[in-house]
Design goal:
By secondary structure, this protein is α+β, with helices and mostly antiparallel strands. 31% of the residues lie in helices and 22% in strands.
Length: 1217
């Protein structure tokens, strides 16, 4: 990479130059004439191991099979005309991004509200690939640049921190200094407390310039252990909070195991790490202590604090806006939740353009009109704009409402990653500026990233004056105190941070400053400066007691809530302050009570459970407080059940709804303990059943108890105690109105407890109710009770129900029985059931040795096809470790692989050729999907949710879809790593982990069912190296069914939708051209990423079927000049790396193939026909010694004897194993 133009310091004269490229693309007349076909050239993502780009063409059609109903000549004519006009379409974009614009051109396209204008502060080459930004007390912009994104390897890199300065006050940066180099994707930066804080995963660094020369001199690892699994989710957004702590974020697919660095004063040998994924964390700037503040969301990027000091983040994929509170656990994009989590949801019910957000800022400065103040502004990367949301109080949290966009760029390259208020009060926007928005593109095509662009803009209102040079660090305390009341948000924040730094030193001046700050907080000034002054004071270990007591009595609910929060933060709390905090449990303000609950869980001098219950009792309809209370109370139920029940009993009647709603969770949590207090649980059930306020909570509680009995988690004395203590109450509930939900749940629980009267009632309900779900619940309860009648009832529902889902659930229930009669029943039902239900029968039969042997005996006797058994089920049978069973599997089913099958690569190659050149029926494909895939996957709201919803996942391109379908074990995401559990009774269960606790393992299994296995019943838990999606789909369905299936799953909308478009790359579009500017579009279909500027006779062509394969056709330019196809990439690091080529010759000719890698000939051969046949030659070139290196590959089509020297190329793929 070239860095020659980037010097350490350079100064530009006023009037910064603009750098950019402009290009115009004409539109083909033929495209205009054939617009209804809507054929466009697009890019798709490379397979996960076959590391190449590909760029086929989707078509939009409401017909089942577009190409079977259009004359081929029309398609060819249309496509030929558009080859030169269309660019590739990156992930999550609607159209090609077009050429990069110069900064001036980009600004000219931007749309902002009336009175606003966009100005350029800096651009390339002065800033390139900017990732994060902060502004210091001199108004200088500190920007991190990353040339190496998306590099995963840790260690020194080529990235750096740069300082931008406007020395003459004209609004343009004219001095650029490199502060630090050698970094590796520095994803966050903050200045303060004597140094610069940099997120440089795996570390958070504290860097100091000790000699004042503007260069980094020392670097301390404050904490380490952040992951680099996913480099678009690294620790980011380092932001000073209103309490003086430094806050940051981490993403959901980037596991962190954080410990203190050796230089951190908190470091200890053998320290336990903080283990988390998506989370907000914070670091104390004085003590360097680290804390996880809360967890959840997706890959959040951007932190904002509003005028009450509450935290907000923007996030991708899921909802875009979140109010984060200490100790909360929020909705996750993926991965299991910790046991007993009650997740918190977002604060939005609306969406903006798209779902990729980066950066968020609370704007409140007088540089803009009032209507634009006190709003949250977020960078929308896919939308190429700045979205706005306003927020209003919703009890202790907020609800957001959409505002008009503050800026629309109308340029796909625009990537607003940071937004901050600047010294002049205007909003400054840092723009990454690249064609690729998403990590998928960056990982697939790192060479395609534009690494030499970046912009910093100012959004100016009318003639707002530019800031002149200043240095707030040189101001005295009095001046900074006045700045706390500034109408400029930047000035307020800088003043608070500088005063916090000064308060950290022990001196008489510090004591005076403390008194002045306390006086301001307790004065009659407006809330803003008082809250900022309090934020300065919070940096110290504790507040002065008299001041703290006065603050806790404040009439301002925001100051009061911060006074409570300060009590929770202190290392020690006086008894008098603790008592005041406790009294505030009854405060009318929900945000005050929220902080009381959090403080009670942190301070030993505050009685935790009584305060938490009291706060919960007053929650009313507050959506946040009950979840925060639960998050802090449930760990205490492990040992303090009696105290919790006693506090519940002290509450006045009628019991508050918020408390009743929590009791089912509490009962479930208590039952999970090593020695559950069954009396307490029975008491909670009684309270719920006798409540006249809500039946829903009682219903949930009864079902939770039933589930724990069914799973075997409650056994022995505990089970007997529950039965004894609840029998009378349950029998009373059984006699209630059957329309109450809790009545059926009471019958189900009582039956599971083998209470005879309830068993009789269960049979009566089954006979009378038309509700099939109720009937299934009765059968489940009878199975738990060990009643033989369950099988006959299951048989009746299988015969009467037309619902495949009901039939599957009935089969799964009988599968729990495990007796020989149950096995024979399942075997008898297998051939009678619909094809989409039969897999559930096989799944149940392969759980146990005896039933698996009986199943295989039918395969042996050719009574059922071995194709009914998938690879995972075969693997599951081997997990039973039965010699006889292993022999039967090997003899009658085949070899079971315990590792991924490398031969899948060849299968994908074959299926790619077949499926891109054949027609299918999407309507028929939906039927195939329901039968084969729908037991684990949803698509367009149909199917089960075991694996990912295919509507949104795994179909970024045709190539990715091929890989996921035919090689599912190639890459298994962390969130979809399966487990196989072998029980002591000899049962095997495989599924995705939902919960793993000391008490139980919960797996989500085929058919959207959860299997709960008590730890006491488990013999072995084995993580699966194979995907739960079995290999071998091509063996289970017929070729036409495969074509139909792909016709369905390659549509971006249901087939009956007229706007449905075929997935990028799912069709070969034949054509040819002798124009060099049209070559790339043709080449991309078969050899993605390769290019050439010259080809001889007939130019470049694409043939849909050349001896059973689609092919790219080239020809030498002359006898002496070959056609040279060139591709540059970085090879993966793997044990073996090979270039796979599929080539053929013309029927009446031959040609020379030469492969050159980095200038070295790696392969030469003559490609010719064999006798009367034209054979495709599949060749491999070993590149293993170049793993991890940047390479340029040249494929030469050289003349041999100058007769029909046409080369036909089917594939040129890099394969790593």
């Amino acid at each position: 990479m070239y860095f020659g133009h980037l010097t350490d310091v350079h100064v530009h004269p006023p009037g910064n130059r603009h750098y950019g490229v402009q290009a115009n693309a004409s539109t083909s007349a033929a495209i205009k004439n054939f617009v209804s076909l809507r054929v466009c050239l697009r890019e798709f993502f490379l397979p996960r191991y076959v590391l190449l780009k590909a760029s086929p063409f989707p078509e939009r059609s409401s017909m089942r099979s577009l190409f079977s109903r259009l004359p081929l000549c029309l398609i060819v004519a249309s496509c030929l005309s558009c080859f030169a006009q269309e660019e590739r379409i990156p992930h999550a974009q609607d159209k090609p991004p077009g050429p990069a614009l110069s900064p001036a051109e980009a600004i000219a396209k931007m749309v902002v509200p009336e009175g606003f204008s966009v100005e350029l502060v800096a651009s390339e080459p002065d800033i390139v690939n900017p990732v994060s930004m902060t502004i210091d007390e001199r108004g200088r912009f500190w920007i991190t640049e990353s040339f190496e994104y998306p590099r995963r390897e840790a260690g020194p890199g080529k990235d750096r921190v740069k300082i931008l300065e406007d020395t003459d006050g004209d609004g343009k940066a004219d001095k650029f200094s490199v502060f630090m180099e050698g970094l590796n994707i520095p994803s966050g930066i903050a200045v303060g407390h004597g140094g610069v804080w940099i997120a440089n995963s795996p570390d958070i660094l504290f860097v100091q310039d000790t000699d004042g020369d503007g260069k980094a001199d020392t670097s301390e690892v404050v904490v380490t252990g952040f992951g680099r699994d996913d480099t678009h989710e690294l620790p980011n957004s380092l932001t000073w909070g209103p309490d003086g702590w430094l806050y940051g974020l981490n993403g959901v697919f980037n596991p962190a195991h954080v410990t203190y660095g050796p230089q951190n004063p908190n470091f200890k040998d053998g320290q336990l790490p903080w283990n988390f994924t998506c989370a907000m964390f914070r670091i104390h700037p004085k003590t360097h202590e680290f804390e996880v503040f809360c967890e959840g969301t997706s890959n959040p990027w951007g932190i904002a604090f509003n005028d009450e000091g509450d935290a907000f983040v923007s996030a991708c994929v899921i909802d875009h806006l979140w109010h984060l509170t200490e100790t909360g656990y929020y909705h996750r994009q993926g991965g299991p939740y910790p046991p007993f989590t009650w997740k918190i949801e977002s604060i939005v019910g609306h969406k903006h353009q798209k779902a990729a957000y980066c950066g968020i800022h609370w704007y409140d400065s007088d540089a803009y009109p009032e209507q634009y103040r006190r709003k949250l502004y977020m960078g929308n990367i896919h939308g190429s704009c700045l979205n706005g949301d306003s927020i209003t109080r919703d009890f202790s949290t907020y609800q957001a409402s959409p505002e008009s966009d503050l800026l629309s760029a109308h340029d796909a390259w625009f990537m607003p990653i940071v937004q901050k208020t600047g010294p002049d009060g205007c909003l400054y926007i840092l723009d990454w500026y690249d064609r690729y928005h998403c990590y998928q593109d960056a990982n697939r095509d790192p060479a395609g990233i534009d690494r030499l662009k970046g912009r910093l803009y100012r959004l100016r209102y009318k003639d707002t004056p530019h800031a002149q040079p200043f240095n707030f660090a040189a101001e005295d305390n009095a001046h900074l105190m006045r700045m706390l009341a500034s109408a400029n948000g930047y000035q307020r924040d800088i003043a608070q941070r500088l005063l916090s730094e000064r308060l950290s030193f022990n001196s008489s001046e510090t004591a005076d400053l403390r008194r002045e700050l306390e006086s301001l907080v307790l004065s009659s000034a407006s809330r803003g400066p008082k809250l900022s002054a309090l934020g300065v004071l919070l940096i110290s270990d504790r507040l002065e007691e008299t001041f703290h007591r006065a603050l806790l009595a404040s009439a301002d609910v925001v100051l009061k809530s911060w006074a409570v929060r300060a009590a929770g933060e202190q290392s020690s709390l006086s008894e008098s302050v603790a008592l005041l905090v406790q009294k505030l449990k009854d405060d009318p303000a929900p945000q005050v009570r929220l902080q009381v609950a959090i403080a009670a869980a942190k301070q030993a001098v505050i009685p935790t459970i009584p305060i938490l219950v009291a706060v919960l009792a007053q929650a009313g309809e507050d959506p946040l407080v009950p979840r925060i209370v639960w998050q802090n109370v449930h760990p205490l139920l492990e040992t303090q059940t009696a105290e919790f029940v006693a506090e519940i009993d002290r509450l006045d009647e009628p019991m508050p709804t918020a408390v009743l709603d929590l009791l089912p969770r509490a009962a479930d949590r208590i039952l999970s303990t090593a020695k559950p207090d069954t009396k307490a649980v029975a008491h909670m059930v009684t309270l719920l059943l006798n409540s006249e306020i809500t039946d829903d909570a009682a219903d949930r509680c009864l079902q939770l108890l039933t589930a724990r009995i069914r799973s075997g988690e409650i056994t022995g004395d505990a089970l007997l105690d529950i039965r004894t203590q609840l029998k009378a109450e349950l029998l009373s509930a059984v006699k209630q109105e059957t329309t109450r939900p809790s009545t059926l749940s009471a019958v189900e629980l009582a039956t599971s407890l083998k209470i005879e009267e309830a068993i009789q009632t269960a049979h009566e309900i089954f006979a009378k109710t038309p509700d099939e779900i109720a009937q299934l619940r009765i059968i489940n309860a009878l199975v738990t009770a060990g009643e033989d009648s369950a099988i006959s009832l299951a048989e009746s529902i299988l015969a009467s129900s037309s619902s495949a889902d009901v039939q599957r659930k009935a089969i799964q229930t009988v599968g729990r029985v495990g007796t020989m009669p149950a096995t024979e029943f399942l075997l008898q039902q297998l051939p009678l059931l619909p094809a989409d239900v039969q897999p559930s029968v096989v799944e149940a039969l392969t759980d146990r040795e005896a039933s698996a042997i009986r199943l295989l005996s039918l395969v042996r006797d050719t009574k059922i096809s071995p194709s009914l058994i998938n690879a995972n089920q075969a693997h599951k049978m081997l997990s039973l470790k039965s010699k006889l069973l292993a022999e039967l599997v090997a003899k009658h089913w085949g070899v079971v692989r315990t590792e991924r099958d490398p031969a899948r690569v060849e299968l994908i190659r074959r299926m790619r050729n077949e499926l891109r050149t054949s027609d299918g029926d999407a309507i028929a494909g939906r039927v195939v999907f329901k039968r084969v895939c729908g037991q684990c996957h949803k698509m367009y709201s149909e199917g089960a949710e075991v694996g990912p919803d295919i509507t949104r996942n795994g179909r970024a391109s045709f190539e990715q879809l091929l890989s996921n379908v035919f090689d599912p074990s190639l890459v298994i995401g962390v969130s979809y790593q399966g487990l196989t559990v072998v029980t002591k009774e000899g049962r095997v269960v495989s599924g995705l982990p939902v919960e793993e606790s000391p008490q139980r393992v919960v797996l989500k299994v085929q058919g959207d069912k959860q299997e709960i296995i008590a730890r006491t019943d488990i013999d072995e838990v084995v993580p699966s190296k194979l995907s739960l999606m079995p290999e071998g789909l091509e063996k289970q369905i017929q070729p036409q069914e495969m074509r139909d299936l792909f016709a369905y799953i390659t549509l971006d909308k249901p087939p009956e939708d007229a706007a449905a478009t075929l997935l990028i790359g799912s069709r070969i579009i034949p054509g040819e051209s002798d124009k060099a500017d049209e070559f790339s579009a043709l080449i991309e279909q078969l050899l993605p990423g390769y290019s050439t500027s010259k080809s001889g006779e007939r130019g470049i062509g694409v043939v849909a079927d050349y001896y059973d394969r689609p092919a790219l056709r080239t020809h030498p330019v002359s006898r002496t000049e070959p056609c040279q196809l060139t591709f540059s990439t970085t090879l993966p690091v793997a044990a073996t790396v090979k270039l796979h080529l599929s080539v053929a010759a013309h029927e009446a000719g031959d040609w020379q193939l030469v492969v050159i890698v980095n200038g070295e000939i790696r392969h030469q051969s003559i490609v010719k026909r064999d006798g009367k046949n034209v054979e495709w030659q599949d060749l491999t070139v070993d590149l293993s010694n170049l793993g991890g290196q940047a390479v340029t590959i040249d494929l030469l089509n050289k003349a041999n004897d100058w007769s029909n020297e046409f080369a036909f190329w089917n594939a040129a793929e890099i394969v790593a194993e």
